Amino acid sequence: MSDAKIDRLAQDLLRINRGEMEVSEAKRLLQGIDEVELSLAEQRLLEKGVSPEQLRGLCKVHLEVLDRQVQDLKESTGPGHPLHTLISEHELILGFIDSVEKVAKAFSTKSSWSKDAEEERLLEILVESAYELVETEKHHQREEEALFPAIERQGITGPTRIMRLEHEELRPKKKALLETARKARQMEFETFNAKLQELSSFIAFNLREHIFKENTILYPAAFKAINDPFTWEDIKRKCDEIGYCCFTPAM
């Protein structure tokens, strides 16, 4: 795909998201391009200063196509394929984020410890969800040590570099959230709540953004670029050696 065509598609995406294109025309345009073309256009927008947050706020018709793209990729690979496993884990990780946010929202309305059954339930959910988020390290390790090197050998290096940096940025925040959850009763309420709100907000925003970019840009590009089945078998073997998360769906 030529640079000029990528630029045109990127500009069309901006027009769609600004409401400058009729819905019927937008659907025809988006349904006529493949996942890699869409991924390259989104990457071009990121390179030109469009924030990942803005990409996540894309109009409904574009989001429908992105969701279809992720589900099509998952179906195309099938259970046991490294990308299918990673996408399935992403779906569960998003649920853990939702749980942390709900707990943080509940505590944001409180001014002191109540030490009742409901509060205990919230803390239990927080500990469990924070633990699951820390458990995502196996997910990231499989990406960094099995998938990313194979992608980089195809000449795709920018996105993997960014993903590694984001893993490093998120790692201490997730550990801090789990520590805060486990030591909640040892803290003054104001101290606990301040840490909870700061950490949950950071993790929710940045981890959702991270997953969005991997699902809609990196994974489709990897699937297109790596067309040798033996390479995918090698990636799977390395993933098996590294191991899986406690929440990884059965393959």
Automatic annotation (TrEMBL):
Top-level taxon of origin: Bacteria
Residue ranges constituting the DUF438 domain according to the UniProt record = 24-71
Entry's transmembrane regions: none
Q: Where is the Hemerythrin-like domain?
A: 81-222
- One of the Pfam families matching this protein, by short name: Hemerythrin
Spell out the InterPro entries in the cross-references. Answer: DUF438, Hemerythrin-like
Q: Which GO terms describe its cellular component?
A: plasma membrane
Its name, as the record gives it, is DUF438 domain-containing protein
In which organism is this protein found? Candidatus Fermentithermobacillus carboniphilus
Lineage runs: Bacteria, Bacillati, Bacillota, Candidatus Fermentithermobacillia, Candidatus Fermentithermobacillales
